[in-house]
Amino acid sequence: MEPRRKLRVTSSSQVQGACCERIMIDRFSDLPDEIALRILNFVGQSLRSLIQLGAVSNRCRRLHLSAPSLTISSSCVSISSRLRTRLLNYWERYLFSRGDNKIENFRIFWKFDSKDGAMKRSDEFFRIATLIQNAVRCNVECLELTFTQNYLNTVVLPSCIFHCHSLMHLYVNLSGGVIQSPSSFPSYFQSLKLHDTKVSDDRFFKWISNSCKCIKDLHLFNVGGMESITIESSSLETFSCRLSADICKVRNLKIAGEKLEDVCIHWEFYSRGAPVLDRASSSRSLNIFAPKLKKLTWCGNFLNHQHLGNLTCLEYARIFLWPDVEKFSNLFEVLCSLCMVRTLLLGEHTIKAFLVEGSMPLPLCNIRDLTLEVNNLDYDCIQAVLYIFRGITTLNKLCIMSHLRRREVTYDETEGENNVTILSMICFSDTSEEDDTTEEEDSIFDLCDTDVDNCETSEEDDAYVEKNYEPIFDVEFWKSQNLSFTNELQEVILEIVEGNDNAMELARYILEHAQNLKKMVIHHSPQHPNVVEMVSKIKMISSATVILTERRLCPLRW
Fold first, then answer.
1. Cα separation of 481 and 258, whole Å?
2. Which pLDDT does position 323 carry in this prediction?
3. Please, are residues 338 and 317 in contact by the beta-carbon 8 Å criterion?
4. Which among 252, 240, 198, 205 is positioned nearest to 223, based on CA atoms?
5. Is the dihedral of CA 446, 451, 453, 457 positive or negative?
6. Interatomic CA distance for residues 210 and 108, integer angstroms
7. CA–CA gap between residue 30 and residue 160 (Å, rounded)
8. From CA 45, how far away is CA 25, in angstroms rounded?
9. Cα separation, 12 vs 451, whole angstroms
10. Number of Cβ within a 10 Å radius of residue 157
C-alpha cells in the first residue's frame, strides 16, 4: 500500500505574532479504484479536467484512462477549423492510449460548420465515426450521438454499432438529418431513442422488428420520412412516440408486442383551429396489439380509424383527444376498449364529445380512480359528465380540476365545524390573468361581439339573461339522476371556479350521499367567501374530513 500522502500548505499571518501552519491530506489517492472511478464520472464531462487529472500522478493517469463516462463536444472550442482538428486529434490519442478499458457512457455533441465545404464536413464525420468505433472496441454500454446543423445528405453510422454485444442503450439525434437503414444483422441493445431524425425507407422499422430481439424500450420523437410506421416486436415492453404536423407526415401507425406494457402516443397532425376541409383530407389510423398493456397515454387529434384491441390488463389510461363531431362513434369505441382500466384521466375536449351521441353510459365496470380535467363545470360539461357517471359503480377517488401549474400549498390550517379544515394555497401562473381560449372559440366570440354596440336590450331581456345564467344543476338535479358512482367513493378533489356554483352543488350532493367518503378537498378562489359557511351547513352522511384551500393567482417571480 502506498504511503499516505500529505500536502503541506503554509501561510504567514499576524495572529498574536505567531505563524500558522495548515496541513491538508490527499484523500483522493487513498480511495479504492471503484470509488475513484465513480467520481471520474463527473470529471469525464470536462475535457480540461480530464487532462489535468492525467498529469497529477501515475495512478491518476491510469485512472483517467479508465474514466467510465466520456463526453466529446465541439462547444468546448471555438468554431475555428484548426481548433476542432486539434480536439479530434486529442480524443484519437486518448482512446488509443486507453486500450480496451471499458466505457459505460460515451456521448458526442457535434455541431458541423456550415462554412466548411462538403469534403471538409465528410472528413470530420469520418473522424467522428472512427471515435465511435474505438468506443465500441471498449465495450461501450450507452452511446449518445447528437449532430446539430449537419449538412450531410445521409448519415451512415458505423455498422459496428448495430452488432455490438455490450451496447445496451442507443440515442441518435440528427436535427432533421436522414439516417440510413442498417443491414439485417442481429442487434443486442435494449433501448433505442430516435430524436428529430428521418429514416430513408421502411427497412429501418423492419430491422427493429426482425433484428432487435432484445429491445425493451423504443422512443420515437419527431421521426419523419415515412407515411407508415410498423413495429412488431416480441421483446418490446415500452413504446413512446411523438409526432407533430410540422415535421412528420405519418398516416399509419401500427404497434404490436406480446410483452408491451406501456404505450405513450402524442400525435398532432392539425391544429384545433384548422379548416374542416384540411381535417377531412388527412386520414390517419392507429392499430395497437398489446394484450398485456398496463399503461396507455394518448394525446392529440382524433383519428379516422383506430383499433386498440381487448385491453384486459390495463391499469392506467390518459386520453386527451380533440375529436370532430362526426367521429364521436369512434371515440366511444375507444373508451369501450378501456372498460377494465382502474385509473382514467380524460381531457375536457374528450369529455364534451359525449354530448353528440346523447345518453350513452360508458361500460367502466372496473374503474377506481377518475380524473376529469375541465376548466369549468358549465352546461355542456355537466351533461357530458353525466354520461360518464352513469356507467360507474366502483369509483374510490374522483378529481375534477383544471390543469394548475406551479402550485404551492402552504399548510396554514384552521379547524372549523363539521370536520372542515381550512388551508391557504397559492397557485403561481405565468400571468395573473390567463387567456385559455382557442382560435375556434375566438372566432365564436368575434361573431357574438359583432354590432354589439348597436344592440339594445330591455329590462325583461336582462332579467331573462340573468335567470338563464343561474346554476340549474343543484342537489335535487343530481338526486333525480339515480347515480351509483358515490357508492364506494372515498376521496374527492374539486375546484370551484369563480361565477359557477355547479361544482359546489356537486360537492354538496356527494357529501350528502357518499356513505364511505373519508376526505374531500375543495379548491376555491377568494371570490367565494361563503364556501366555508355552505360546507358547514351540509348534513354529511359520513364522517369525512373536508379541506378547503383558497387559490390565489399571482405573477411568477423569476
1. 42
2. 66
3. yes
4. 198
5. negative
6. 28
7. 38
8. 26
9. 86
10. 17
What pLDDT does 60 receive?
A: 74
Name every residue whose Cβ is closer than 8 Å to that of residue 280 and which is 6 or more positions away in sequence. Answer: none
Largest Cα span, the chain: 99
Q: Residue 44's CB: how many other CB atoms inside 10 A?
A: 22
Distance CA 83, CA 468 (A): 74
Residue of 110, 103, 104 lying closest to 72 (CA atoms): 110
What is the separation of C-alpha 517 from the centre of its chain, rounded to a whole number of angstroms?
32
Give me the torsion for CA of 460, 463, 469, 470, rounded to 10°.
Answer: -140
Position 14 confidence tier, pLDDT thresholds 50, 70, 90: very low
Residue (of 95, 108, 45) closest to 66 by Cα position: 95
Tens-digit pLDDT profile for residues 421-449: 555 443 333 333 334 444 433 433 343 33
Name the residue among 335, 346, 345 with its Cα closest to residue 391: 335
Q: Calculate the average pLDDT of the chain.
A: 76
E strands, 104-168, in order: 105-111, 142-148, 154-155
Residue 510 identity (one-letter amino acid)? I
- List CB contacts of 7: < 8 A, sequence separation 6 or more: 23, 24, 25, 26
Q: Which residues contact 169 (CB under 8 A, 6 or more apart)?
A: 141, 142, 143, 189, 190, 191, 193
Q: For residues 243 and 220, what is the distance between their CA atoms, to the nearest angstrom?
A: 8
C-alpha cell at 308: 386498440
Q: Does 390 score more than 80 pLDDT?
A: yes
Give CA–CA dist 252/283, Å, rounded: 9
In degrees rounded to 5, what are phi and psi of residue 410?
-105, 120
Q: Is residue 108 a contact partner of residue 72, using CB atoms and an 8 Å limit?
A: yes
The pLDDT value given to residue 456: 41
d(CA 513, CA 392): 15
Q: Give the Cα separation of 394 and 97 in Å (integer).
A: 65
According to DSSP H, which parts of 397-501 are helical?
439-448, 459-468, 475-480
Higher pLDDT: 364 or 233? It is 233
Spatial neighbors of 272 by CB under 8 A, at least 6 apart, are 322, 349, 438, 439, 440
Angle, helix 47-54 to helix 33-43, in steps of 10 degrees: 140
CA dihedral 81, 156, 260, 143 (to 10 degrees): -40
Backbone angles phi, psi at 177, to 5 degrees: -75, 170
**DSSP assignment, residue 545?**
E
Q: What is the mean pLDDT of residues 300-311?
A: 85
Most confident region among 14-18, 309-313, 403-407 by mean pLDDT: 309-313
- Tell me which amino acid residue 265 is: I
Q: How far apart are CA 136 and CA 29, in angstroms?
A: 30
Other Cβ atoms within 10 Å of 129 Cβ, number: 16
